[in-house]
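FAQ: What does the model actually see?

It sees only this:
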Amino acid sequence: MDLTKGSHKQKIDRSKKMMLWFGIASLIMGFAGWTSAYIVSRSRKDWDQSLELPSLFYVSTAIIIISSLSYWLATKASKENKKNLSSMLLGVTLLLGVSFIYFQTEAFFQMTSKGIYLTGAVSSPKASFIYVIAGVHVIHVIAGLISLLVVFYQQIKGKYSSKEYLGISLGETFWHFLGLLWVYLILFMSFVK
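And it is asked to produce this:
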């Protein structure tokens, strides 16, 4: 496929897709680095193997999986020119995304209420990794919510249809990536003690 051919719009659309995939690749490398450091640090004497993840992390996992489904359905509805259904599903996805952040924040409060802190004398390297890995993911979900707000606004304005849906499709791809990333991270932190 010759990337230099096509209309100006097709070239712009390809460049937007490529930028998204470059961004996703860089996020994968970042989280691979943190999870690798987590694995290497497990050999430390002060590593707390008994530390369990907060139960609300699992609640937020279910929420982000459901939000991924609602985003997919919203994109599908948009491609079928079902504007109202798509708008409603994007709104549901937005509420689920905010709920994810709420439960993640509450999970951090669960940890601190048990005396598990990010830093300090009573902290452990494992606790610090959990805070950093989950916290950085939350920051990226906030970026995903900003993207979702833009998509939601564009959907309400009628920008997306069966012929023009690149924006909603790119937003959906990023959102799915964030969901899959969290599922990987929760499984990683659950099984790699």
